[in-house]
Amino acid sequence: MRILFTGGSGKAGRHATRYLLDQGHRVLNLDRTPSDVPGILNRIADITDLGAMHDAMQAWADFDELEPGTGVPAFDAVVHFAAVPRIMVTGDAECFRVNTLGTYNVIDAALKAGIRKIIFASSETTYGVCFANGERKPEYIPVDEAHPTEPEDSYAMSKVVNEATARSFQRRSGADIYGLRINNVIEPHEYAQNFPGFINAPEKRRRNIFAYIDARDLGQMVDCCLRTDGLGYEVFNVANDTHSVAATTQELTRRFYQGVEQRREMGEHETFYTNEKAKRLVGFSPRHDWRSEI
């Protein structure tokens, strides 16, 4: 597929675009800084500039596309990861502005260019646990996509708004628009670098609902969505099968989730951030478990 990928220079984007390249896709990265991933094509643009987004959706990716003499080829899909990545990077209002306006612009431009497959990055933070002021527990476990999304911070608020924006665009267009509620992204080098500091200190992972997503498995999830047509609007939790600490799921439940409704029996190390829907609807099958990486 010929794919426009926004935010491909970021932490998650670099690994996702590399994975897509390995699957044979052609990827044009749209970002404010170019990607250093070999084989990725780059276009410098700002997602808050609506005109630039409309221009990018109908742009050449590289010089070889001039050779057929048939005009600018169409993109098969847009993957939208570009965003202010969390709170405390910019002011709260700026975070909200960039993320919401940018997402509106990207989806609007993509649909008006005739692109019928859009995948966008939402977040685990939409459930209100990650950036809560103090401790907030999920309403039930495991956390699935039906769990209420009632955050209190500007970043998570922007992601909730983006989901509503995407759902509205899908309703009027009929295109396939899939949102990924991405959990804490772990790059391959971060297993040895970071995990020893918290695998035996689970309280450090409470805000991430004890979960994680390997950056390479995130790339696989994007590819699964690209290959799955006809779902309309959907959102998916994106996490690995197991949680990120040494304690068992049952031990974590007793220590951190006393009084929280548990809706089914869970496996010994099963993630509290369930990925069952992604497995069932798009064939997601994460391959990287931290226990085999360290």
From TrEMBL:
Highest taxon listed in the record's lineage: Bacteria
Residues spanning the membrane: none
Domain NAD-dependent epimerase/dehydratase residue range list: 3-238
CDD domains in the record: SDR_e
Pfam family name, one: Epimerase
PANTHER family registered for this protein in UniProt: NUCLEOSIDE-DIPHOSPHATE-SUGAR EPIMERASE, PUTATIVE-RELATED
Protein name per its UniProtKB record: Nucleoside-diphosphate-sugar epimerase
Organism listed in the record: Vannielia litorea
